[in-house]
Amino acid sequence: MNYTVIGGGVGCARFVKGLREHVRRAGGQHRIDVVVNTADDWWVSGLRIAPDHDSLLYALAGVNDAERGWGRAGESERVAGELHVWGTAPDWFTLGDLDLGTHIARTAWLREGLSVSEVYRRLGARWDLGATLHPATDAEIDTHVLLAEGEPVHFQEWWVRHRAQLPATGFAQRGIERAAPCPGALDAIASADVILVAPSNPVVSVGPVLAVPGMRDALAVATAPVVGISGIISGAVVRGMADACLAAIGVETSAEAVARHYGARSGGGLLDGWLVDESDAAAVAAVRECGIVARAVPLWMRDADTSARLAGDALALAASLR
Asked: For the chain, which domains are there?
């Protein structure tokens, strides 16, 4: 079986780890591909930084800092301190020394002319990830936040420096109109037996993937069922500040509202199925009314067992949709 996951960041990383664990326990021949959001990427000190990809890379490799939720475990920050002194990096964005090694390697390969897809392959080859990571696009499509007052700012500045507190009116990926899905992402979607939308930020992690020209078309004609997992439980985000992103585009912070935001594939949207938490079981009927088959299951991914169980529940819903 071929499983393709769409998303990025910590929520996606935890879900993919759970899917990998489920696959290992189930046995048999299975392949996991992940189409990763690249719109969080940006340039710092002349280095290309890719937060959503690196969260997946480090988590699947088992070298992530689980307490902070980002970066490498056992980090030091001597180089970051020097960059701050020299004024080549903002003091509100700190990168660890091991993490900087990744960014230096990535940037060196990009400057040699390698595509983002090839850089993903080289970085992923270092560890046995149990999954193949693909950028949504090889083009640069950095997200900028449209503010209620003032000029747009890069998403990382809004997210990290201002903690999503500056009133926003929307999000734009610069250059996305000239982008195209990378071949690996298209192949992963076309060959999938199941397509899973991770419990990632629906606006700035999943949204930019879907906004790449040609990506929605590929998903629309895919033969695999598309099942999403809510990152909203009991009206609150599981992690991060997705509620601020949803508010900026006029979407309520609820599992039902996010399902409606994605839309039913039968009506030109994204989803065939949607998992909500048991605490949101009352939303199941409303989600079904908009053409999406919904189920309520435990969504909290606390450890390997609960994460693997969630992946199994997602695959069970997908099997029922075939």
From this structure: 2-141+174-321 (3.40.50.10680)
Strand partners, 49: 42
Report helix, strand and coil shares of the chain as percent, to nearest 5.
Answer: 45, 20, 35
Q: Which whole-number Å values give the CA distances from 294 to 26, 44, 258, 321, in the listed order?
A: 24, 42, 13, 11
Q: What is the DSSP string of 87-135?
A: TSS-TT----HHHHHHHHHHHHHHHTT--HHHHHHHHHTTS--SSEEEE
Instruction: Return the DSSP state at 178.
Output: G
Residues written for the chain: 322
- Whole-model pTM: value is 0.96
Q: Which long-range contacts (CB under 8 A, 24 or more apart) does 122-127 make?
A: 123/53, 123/57, 124/57, 126/61, 127/57, 127/60, 127/61, 127/62, 127/63
pLDDT tens string 143-168: 999 999 999 999 999 999 999 999 99
Q: Above 80 in pLDDT, residue 69? A: no
- The two tokens of residue 283 are 């939303």
